[in-house]
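pasting for ref. prot 1 ->
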Amino acid sequence: MLDRARSLLLVIDLQEGYRGKLLEEARTLAGARRLLQAAAVLGVPVLLTEQYPKGLGATRAEIAECVPADAARFEKTSFSCLGAPGLRERLAEHSEAGRDQIVVAGIETHVCVGQTIQDLLEHRYETHAVRDAISARFPLDDETGWARALAAGARPTTSEGALFEWLRDARAPEFKAIHKLVV
């Protein structure tokens, strides 16, 4: 089960260049926003990547506005986020501090998300793939990428499932703030 003290949120490539091109785009953006907002409330660190921003643009405004100010941002050309300069080292720092659960959101399921999940699992991170915050442009790529991620060992969840695992108890002081994100 997810533990907010052990978790880190990795948001992959939700950039302007994909606007209007994603399968279930509204669902994906809503799930990612929910995760980012909850991470801010619960103190879960955030890492954010952008794939070749010169060509694909910056992080979409509706996502960027939810990214905590202290989030680490990484530009990359590699499809796996672990190829982004400095990201692997940042993961290692968090891991040494006990954050070994990586919660993954972003695009595309069969490319950057899929290759990142494979690399995270190879580096022995407990990897949680958030279904309603992960997408691709085409259904077959999305379905195949999702199946491969699960077959590799990623743990499936939803944004709401992740939030309530991070929260654990309705008596938590953050309950009302988190509950507002899902109703």
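and prot 2 ->
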Amino acid sequence: MIAIVDGCRFGTLIGAALVLMLPATVRADDVKLVLRVTSGERKVQTKVTRQEPSSQKPQPQPVFRAAPGESLKVAWEARHDDGKTTFKDVLVHFFVVPEKKVGQIAIPPLGKDVPHEGAVTLDFKPDAEASGEFTIQLDQPGSYMIRVETRGLLGQVQHEDYTAMDLVIE
């Protein structure tokens, strides 16, 4: 299966060079997600993949601070660390959305004021990796949530995975 969504490349190794399929070096239960924001020499990256539902209180999210109109490169990676199971029809969803306050855990409504949103559905083979990136400029000062998440794992592993960071335009 091959899909190109919102400038991001996805596919299988057999499907061609549209998705990079690499062996994972770190073992985990299922999917590890990384989100990275860069501007010039500055970079902030998430270090934790969280699960929903979870009884654990989430740790504070990383924060990237930028000026209005600054060009930001947002990159995400999803790595399937289970060397045994193919996850079928997994949606990888990524977005930037205004939030009420820095550190907000609840996802704000994804309405018409969402500056960026994209998704891809794939069969996630063992030890596979998918990635994407986009550039965004936000002129409106405020706080934004940047998040990458899975949808479709709940029925397969009893949770979804996500990672997020805050973007403060000041």
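The chain has a mean pLDDT of 84.
The two ends are 42 Å apart (CA to CA).
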